[in-house]
Model the fold of this input.
Amino acid sequence: MEESARAATFKILDEYPDGYRFKGIALMQGVELRTGKIHYPDTMLRYMRDYRATTGRNIVNVDRARSIYEIQEKA
Done:
């Protein structure tokens, strides 16, 4: 069975350690590699918001202009 873009996004974000910074485009490319399909950047951001809500993991946008995000430690 083919992996969904949402499942791929969740797995990639699970693999990122606390303090890790990444660009939105890198997340999108990672999902593309896992699924073999291209998805809109907005889709990845929506799945990232779902991931935060589901897991409680804190991911913040540290540079909006460059679309850079950081996984932060839980308080």
User: Anything to note?
Assistant: The longest strand covers residues 58-63. The chain is about 50% helix and 20% strand. The mean pLDDT is 93. Residues 41-55 form the longest helix (15 residues).
